[in-house]
């Protein structure tokens, strides 16, 4: 009587290769979707940083009982958190104001605009916001496959920040 050393059950090399090819095809189709999701996440993170800076200015104004502001510079795509020390009655960021931090938007952001005078949002000690204009901040970011538009609005009466995001 002959003993059988090989089992009839198991996986053949051909079955393993076919499975690997199928997994590779599915992964290839999924990679562009992951790239788009990654870009959307990066753009949302940059917008959250801007909103956090606005909220930090409001919080500091309430805590210190002083005016704090955020100045947006569309030319070099930066925004500056500052303590208003020089011209308390004006809606501006001038030399002599105490700069707390300067941040730059990622290079994919190609447009930054506000509809407020001097691109400055000033927060009072009671939490309200002072500005001449509508209180809107618009940012546009684009890469291959993703276009993002962020429409941020600061309410003057409460100083609260509201954001709408649009992805195309």
User: What's the architecture in CATH terms?
Assistant: 3-Layer(bab) Sandwich
Report the order of strands and helices: HEEEEEEEEE
- Under CATH at level 1, the class stands as Alpha Beta
Distance between the termini: 72 Å
Q: Output the structural class.
A: alpha+beta
How many distinct domains? 1
CATH superfamily: minor pseudopilin epsh domain
Mean pLDDT, to the nearest integer, reads 90
Write up what this structure looks like.
By secondary structure, the protein is an alpha+beta fold. The protein is 31% helix and 36% strand. The protein has 1 helix and 9 strands, in the order H-E-E-E-E-E-E-E-E-E. A hairpin with a 5-residue loop joins strand 5 and strand 6 (129-130). The longest helix has 52 residues, at 13-64. The termini are far apart.
Detail the topology: elements first, then pairings:
Blueprint lengths: L12 H52 L3 E6 L4 E6 L14 E7 L4 E8 L3 E4 L5 E2 L2 E11 L2 E9 L6 E7 L1
Can you tag this structure with a few keywords?
about 170 residues; 9 strands; alpha+beta; 5-stranded antiparallel sheet; single chain
What is this structure, in a nutshell?
This protein is α+β, with helices and mostly antiparallel strands and 168 residues long. Helices cover 31% and strands 36% of the residues.
């Amino acid at each position: 009587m002959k003993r059988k050393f090989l089992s009839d059950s198991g996986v053949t090399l051909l079955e393993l290769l076919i499975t690997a090819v199928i997994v590779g095809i599915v992964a290839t189709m999924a990679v562009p979707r992951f790239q788009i999701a990654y870009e959307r996440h990066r753009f949302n993170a940059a917008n959250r940083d801007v909103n956090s800076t606005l909220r930090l200015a409001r919080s500091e104004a309430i805590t210190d009982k002083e005016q704090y502001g955020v100045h947006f510079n569309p030319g070099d795509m930066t925004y500056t958190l500052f303590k208003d020390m020089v011209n308390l009655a004006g809606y501006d960021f001038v030399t002599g104001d105490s700069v707390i931090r300067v941040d730059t938007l990622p290079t994919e952001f190609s447009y930054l605009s506000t509809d407020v005078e001097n691109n400055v949002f000033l927060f009072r000690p009671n939490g309200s916001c002072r500005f001449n204009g509508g209180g809107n901040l618009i940012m546009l970011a684009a890469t291959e496959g993703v276009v993002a538009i962020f429409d941020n609005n600061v309410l003057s009466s409460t100083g609260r920040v509201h954001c709408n995001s649009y992805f195309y």
